[in-house]
Amino acid sequence: MSAPPGELIAARYTHVVSVVVVVIVAIWHLGFDSLILLRGWSRYEPAWAVLAAWLMLCAVQSIGSALLIRSALHGRVAPALTIVALLAGAVAVTTYPKGEAISDISWAANTVGWFGVLLLMQRPIHELVALLGCTVALTVVALGSSGDLDTRVAWSRLITQSYTTAGIQLTFALLARQLHHAAHLTTRAARAQADRLARQTAEETRHIERRRRYRYLRDRIAPLLRDLAEGRAHPGDDAVRRSSAIEAARLRRLFAETEDAAHPLLHELRACADVADRRNVDVTFVCYGELPDVPVAVRRRLTEGPLLALASAEVRARVTVVATTTEVTVSVVADAAAPVALRTSGPSDTSVIFDEKENLLWLESRWRVPRSRSTSVSSTTTPW
Predict the structure, then answer these.
(1) What is the SS3 assignment for 320?
(2) Cα 243 to Cα 220: distance, rounded to the nearest angstrom
């Protein structure tokens, strides 16, 4: 199931920020650190240790970047990779010459800080702060072990480096979090606006539907009731009784259109047959196949012919619904007293055959299913 559009927008924001961090760390470690390593190769002691630390950080970078891009940097993986990066940085710091913990060949502490941004960006901020504190502590220990912390110049250089490295990294992480938070706020606002528009559209649709029903009652039901009330139509007249049955079936179908049903077409056909049931007509339903999603307007055209046939039935009627991948057919066989005159339009095709000898009416309505609505057909027969 696809995610809502608002969540997709927030996910895209997060993905873009992740890609930016991955690119920064890749350029920093594979580019900048490599140049520093090559330039000061002869000054590291032992050289193989600094190379091992650099390669270990390359492995952490590859694994962390892949997991971050796939949004799979969860659980204990990120802290574990961070610890490995910190240990690699500590090994690299031990290879610096005495008195050069802050120099043109010192690279490990700054790099480990960027690795922390990569690995801990989506975790609680205090974890990144703790890691940046550890990177600063590595430099402090290296300076202290070489006796370079006894001058104001050394402390000034330490504060300046910490501010320009750990401070920038922490600021970047905070800005990334702020952007992520802004994306979620935008998502909520967009979702709220979409909900308001959906409610407004639903209200307008209900209003239009109420007006349609009112026009139907005014144009079809009201004249018949007025004629009955004023004596121009007699309830005992067969034509009046048939007209009343037809309008009653249409009214029941109108109400059934708004009811929640698994198969709306069958539900509306059953509503049309309720009037015949009240006249003690034996109505049988049979459905073959799996019904597709039939629009309301098409259902009205499909049920109009069967509705007239059921209203004209005297003793028995049989309704058959056949659904295939390309067509939906509704047919009715009823012992109607006279043929039913139909006027059809649109994609629904209705044919009528009346057998005067047997006094049987056969009526069939067809609708060709568009390709986008086609569904598989069941091989079982479902009586209803």
Answers:
(1) strand
(2) 10
Q: Which two tokens stand for residue 314?
A: 């005297």
Contact by Cβ (8 Å): 302, 268:
no
Longest dimension (CA), the chain: 121
pLDDT in tens, the chain (384 residues): 455 555 666 677 778 888 888 999 999 999 999 999 998 898 998 999 999 999 999 999 999 999 988 888 888 899 999 999 999 999 999 998 887 888 888 888 889 999 999 999 888 889 999 999 998 888 888 888 777 676 677 778 788 888 878 888 888 888 888 887 777 787 788 788 888 888 888 888 777 877 776 776 677 666 777 777 777 777 766 667 677 777 777 777 776 766 677 788 888 888 888 878 888 888 888 888 888 888 888 888 888 888 888 888 888 889 999 988 888 888 888 887 655 555 444 445 667 777 766 778 888 888 888 876 554 443 333 334
Distance CA 149, CA 372 (A): 76
The Cα-based distances of 229 to 219, 225, 289, 309 in angstroms read: 16, 6, 46, 27
Segments in 257-374 forming alpha helices (H):
264-278, 296-312
Q: For 234, list phi and psi in degrees, rounded to 5.
A: -105, 130
pTM comes to: 0.52
Strands 327-336 and 348-355: unpaired
